[in-house]
């Protein structure tokens, strides 16, 4: 063999794999060899990749317990690291949250109650019934929420009986 030649003992290229969801940092150093025309490693460089911030976990509280209005806000929610947690809370007891990790879904629902719509009666022919009765006036918004609930007491005329 000539002194200007040497044998090339090429090894197979290696391909590595890493599960990025287990990385505990937002920076990944990548070793990059510098290779000459003959395939010799003549140097190296380390390139550091910074991963984008994002939410790895979205959690919720299921149902809140408040019975008062909450303060509103318009702040942007921004992930502070590559695997941040976003928590979605129900403020009051009428909003229900249900998450399904298998289906990657979050369902938001309004609590539903059945309404008693049985008519009540009062017999004014009874001598003990009195000369007044109370009726309730209820006002609703277009979503069906009660916006006013006011009782009115009506007094019957003296000549009723």
Please tell me about this protein's structure.
- The chain is mostly beta strands and 161 residues long.
- 0% of the residues lie in helices and 38% in strands.
- The protein has no helices and eight strands.
- The protein has strands at residues 27-35, 41-50, 55-60, 84-88, 95-100, 105-110, 132-140, 146-155.
- The strands form four sheets. A two-stranded antiparallel ribbon has the order 1-2. It has a two-stranded parallel sheet with strand order 3-4.
- It is rod-shaped.
- The model has no long low-confidence stretch (mean pLDDT 82).
Element-by-element helix/strand order: EEEEEEEE
Question: How would you name the oligomeric state of the polypeptide chains in this document?
Answer: single chain
The strand count comes to 8
Which class do the helix and strand fractions yield?
mainly beta
Number of helical regions: 0
Q: What is the C-alpha radius of gyration, as a whole number of Å?
A: 36 Å
Please state roughly what percent of the residues sit in beta strands, choosing from under 5%, 5-15%, 15-25%, 25-35%, 35-45% or over 45%. 35-45%
Distance between the termini: 132 Å
* Shape category: rod-shaped
Biggest beta sheet summary: 2 strands, antiparallel
Describe the structure using short key phrases.
161 residues; mainly beta; two-stranded antiparallel ribbon
Outline:
The protein is mainly beta and 161 residues long.
